[in-house]
Design brief:
By secondary structure, the chain is α/β, with parallel strands linked by helices. Helices cover 30% and strands 18% of the residues. It starts with 21 loop residues before the first strand and ends in a 9-residue tail after the last helix.
Length: 328
């Protein structure tokens, strides 16, 4: 208990009042990593305000397509054919998430997969905030060799029995999250909570795919119609200067987890007349990231080149008043 770790004779350390009242530690296995991939299994460990496990839940999900990398998750078409489709488990899944902070390792991936499945079902996932355990481990300054789940588990002495099985991965994460949460509370660290905005649009479209060896195709689903982003018609006016407006033609790059679905954020930038860059160079006008202390390639290059950096909230404000390009 947090109170047991205080010095003898001192008052118990108060639990931060701003901390959430409950958590849903989630892991999903999927057919792949793209936005048109599907969930094939899901697990949730519900935790109370101080990280104690309340219960857990697990289900297989029929993705209505091929299962993807079976050699990783071990779930074959034969196993999944008799599983419920996502719409059939959506209510029970929602009941596990309701009113809780979604906790996951690389939470943006799990959240976006879940949000897309609910959007396909013409519903919204009842999640308003998420917490990434990678971001929390950075906030705590844990001496990890990398940001893999197995490294976080090893740091806290949690035994991983079945990697890439949703139920065991969720258990491992729940057991590693508890001491992380208590360490954060003891040190008064603000939790790296991000807003979850449900997707509200979805289009299903059949796309046949012929696999090697003559195997059949499958139905792909995608967030919005797949299209190539149009080229920015404006010249690059240079770097963004703090306190000034963005200007059409500026090159903007994004790095790390974002509250808003990344593609939607990029769409808004494009619609405002900005050039969305997939990499960072000396020509980049601005880097948008919620984790400026991370060691990602883009963040490191931004430091090297002196590229201005703002967070997502500040960027959203800047998008509301973008200066027209010269002659526009």
């Amino acid at each position: 208990m947090l109170e047991d770790r205080t010095l003898a004779g001192s008052a118990p350390a108060p639990w931060p009042a701003a901390y959430p009242q409950g958590y849903a530690v989630v892991d999903v296995e999927t057919t792949g990593l793209a936005r048109d991939d599907r969930i094939i299994s899901a697990a949730v460990y519900r935790l109370d305000a101080r990280g104690e496990i309340e219960d857990h839940w697990y289900t297989l999900v029929n993705p209505e397509r091929d299962p993807g990398p079976v050699w990783i998750h071990g779930l074959t078409s034969e196993v999944l054919d008799s599983a419920p489709v996502f719409a059939d488990i959506a209510d029970e899944f929602a009941a596990r998430l309701q009113g809780r902070v979604l906790v996951a390792h690389n939470a943006v991936f799990d959240w976006q997969m879940i949000a897309r499945e609910y959007a396909r079902a013409r519903r919204e996932a009842p999640v308003r905030r998420r917490l990434c355990t990678i971001a929390l481990s950075k906030a705590l300054g844990l001496p990890l060799p990398n940001h893999k789940l197995e490294s976080l588990a090893a740091h806290f002495g949690v035994v991983q029995r079945h990697a890439h099985h949703a139920l065991d991965d969720a258990r491992v994460l729940a057991e590693a999250f508890r001491p992380s949460l208590r360490a954060a509370a003891e040190r008064g660290i603000r939790l790296p909570l991000l807003e979850c905005r449900p997707l509200t649009e979805w289009s299903d479209r059949p796309v046949p795919r012929q696999h090697p060896g003559g195997s059949g195709g499958y139905r792909r689903s995608g967030w919005r119609p797949s299209r190539k982003r149009p080229a920015c018609p404006y010249p690059n006016p240079g770097r963004y200067e703090e306190g000034k407006r963005l200007k059409q033609g500026m090159r903007v790059a994004f790095s790390g987890d974002t509250s808003l679905d990344r593609e939607l954020l990029e769409d808004r930038a494009t619609q405002a007349g900005l050039h969305v860059a997939t990499s960072l160079s000396r020509l980049t006008s601005l880097l948008v990231t919620n984790d400026p202390d991370s060691g990602t390639t883009k963040v490191l290059k931004a430091r090297q080149y002196g590229t201005p950096v703002v967070d997502e909230a500040a960027f959203g404000q800047l998008l509301q008043d973008v200066e027209p390009a010269d002659g526009a």
